[in-house]
Amino acid sequence: MPEPYDDGAIAGTGAGGAMDLAASEATTLERTPGGPQGTGPAEKPRSLWSDAWRDLRRNPVFIISSLVILFLVVISLWPSLIASGNPLQCDLAKAQEGSQPGHPFGYNGQGCDVYTRTVYGARTSVTVGVCTTLGVALFGSFVGGLAGFFGGGWDALLSRVTDIFFGIPVVLGGLVFLSVVTSSTVWPVIGFMILLGWPQIARIARGSVITAKQNDYVQAARALGASNSRMLLRHIAPNAVAPVIVVATIALGTYIALEATLSYLGVGLKPPTVSWGIDISAASQYIRNAPHMLLWPAGALAITVLAFIMLGDAVRDALDPKLR
Question: CA 199, 201, 202 angle in degrees (round to 5)?
């Protein structure tokens, strides 16, 4: 905002003062990039996303967490790169044995290689976390965006539905819902977590859309006759998606931990699926005699969850204008 004029200073300026003022302004224009005789083109204004990416590249927390997550994604896609064994191949004669050459993590209670199962367990956890986060973000943003944009009766109806799902305890709901599921695949667990996980994203999206639709550019688009779908997709969504990305990134690690919790309780993933939660549950009864069975999968789970939470914190700091 330009500074207000000083009437007293302007009134007291004589002919010489006016010439000095004009010379000063000319000198300023010459030194300003992009001016009449500037030394270079004017600097292009940066967007929120370009500023965020610049801050993220300078944040060591983002770099470390990204490298850990990249490593997890790689071994999830190609676990045989660092584990040549079969996670389902077991030898009861070696049950609960400790570290040995070629088997650095030892064996579990069934004689399976703990190292191989820990590596292959990353695929299940990353798949559940990523698919759940995508489903929750898309569905929650859709419901919250409609409620915030249209308001009135739609807002009241969708908000009450959101409150109903938001009030269901996740672990208790999992014990009830997943106890009747006999499938050993990851999809029932992913579907359940999407079913109870979207209300949080919906609330964030609703508030963000309500704030964005009050901006001048949205009102101008409405005055020019833009349709509701165009205003939502072209003008509101790009400016309201940042809080959703932050919450979804942090929640991804929470979904991985939730899957392990449900599998530990016996209602999540089931054998022969390889999962850190299943291995932790099976190793909990041998913690005194063979603690290695529990420490390695639990450590991998803790590192994975921590990496995604650190990534979410870094993204939040980069996208929050109040922290600049």
Answer: 60
